[in-house]
Amino acid sequence: EAQVTQNPRYLITVTGKKLTVTCSQNMNHEYMSWYRQDPGLGLRQIYYSMNVEVTDKGDVPEGYKVSRKEKRNFPLILESPSPNQTSLYFCASRKGLTGNTIYFGEGSWLTVV
Amino acid sequence: KQEVTQIPAALSVPEGENLVLNCSFTDSAIYNLQWFRQDPGKGLTSLLLIQSSQREQTSGRLNASLDKSSGRSTLYIAASQPGDSATYLCAVGGFTGGGNKLTFGTGTQLKVEL
User: Fold this and answer.
1) Which residues of chain A make contact with B104, given a CB cutoff of 8 A?
2) pLDDT of B98 above 70
3) Minimal Cβ distance to B99: which of A35, A97, A106
4) N or C end of chain A, less CB within 10 A?
5) Residue A95 has what pLDDT?
6) Residues of A in contact with B99 (CB under 8 A)
7) Of B49, B100, B105, Cβ closest to residue A48
8) What is the per-residue pLDDT for A97?
């Protein structure tokens, strides 16, 4: 079954404690991205990757890092989380660069206190 | 900067009714437009993808249209059912980042009542 898998699904953490949200896809997709969803603001892109070792900033990259060492994995790293990073995070993947359906993971609820 | 607006923000209809959800965007230079469904606590499921050269796409009871020149798309749901209750999001694929940028609307929350 085609899947985008995120972990953890739910996390409460404290300000400043580094955390990583993992994302893995089993469809051999080139393109992967991270979004955050906030009430009234919709989904906003954090980072995206067009292939292994190729990443670029989205609309709201501040406070986040990513890496793409393998095609299937695209972890999101919060080096020093702050309360304004409390949000629902989605990882997504798509075959090729454009024009194809994008697949989303089920989301990771992150609360920073 | 692309802006995507969805109206209405919420909609409640009786079962069996045909309905239209609206999406408008400010920049007509787009690659494609996608409609998604989001259930509470779940991820997004792609419903329909319309390429910029297409006018509409159909899947079962769903039909999405695209009018690039006027910056509008509609999602038509025929014979609505309670299982259609969800939030519907439209997203426009733009040229930024090699065509990889999706700009989302804030969604229409649909409730279909028995």
Assistant:
1) 35, 42-44
2) no
3) A97
4) N
5) 87
6) 97-99
7) B100
8) 63
Q: Which residues contact B15 (CB under 8 A, 6 or more apart)?
A: B80, B81, B82, B112, B113, B114
B45 contacts in chain A (CB < 8 Å) = 104
How far is CA A13 from each of CA A39, A63, A66, B41, B103, rounded to the nearest angstrom? 20, 15, 19, 20, 29
State the 10-residue block means of pLDDT for chain A, 113 residues long.
Answer: 93 96 96 93 91 91 97 97 97 80 93 97
Contact (CB<8Å) B97/A56: yes
Q: Which two tokens stand for residue B114?
A: 């028995």
Position with higher pLDDT, A1 vs B26: B26
| B44/A104 touch (CB, cutoff 8 Å), yes or no | yes
Task: Take residue A23 and report the two structure tokens written for it.
Answer: 């994302």
Counts for chain A of helices (H) and strands (E), in that order: 0, 11
- pLDDT for residue B66: 97
Comparing alpha-carbon positions, the chain A residue that sits nearest to B1 is A59
Q: How many residues does chain A have?
A: 113
CA distances (Å), A47 to each of A1, A9, A103, B9, B80, in order?
26, 19, 16, 27, 36
pLDDT at B106 over 60: yes
Residue A103: its chain B contacts at CB < 8 A?
A: 46
Q: Provide the edge-to-edge strand list for the sheet that holds A4-7.
A: A4-7, A19-25, A76-78, A65-66
Give mean pLDDT, residues B25-31: 91
